[in-house]
Write a structure and sequence with these properties.
The protein has 54 residues and is mainly α. Helices cover 61% and strands 0% of the residues. The protein is built from one helix and no strands. It has one helix spanning 3-35. The longest helix has 33 residues, at 3-35. The chain is rod-shaped, with a radius of gyration of 19 Å.
Length: 54
Amino acid sequence: MDHSLKTFIGIYLRVVAIALLPLVVTTFIWIPYTFGWHPGDASSRTEIIGRHMT
């Protein structure tokens, strides 16, 4: 493989990884930490339904 193509692919993959970092942090860290549960686990936890938001 050509050196310039390897360089381009390396830079491209780094840019994609950096662009996806906020999505991953929001989905897997911020939302579960804020709500106390992961959105996929909502049906298995009944105590969440009893809480009032105000």
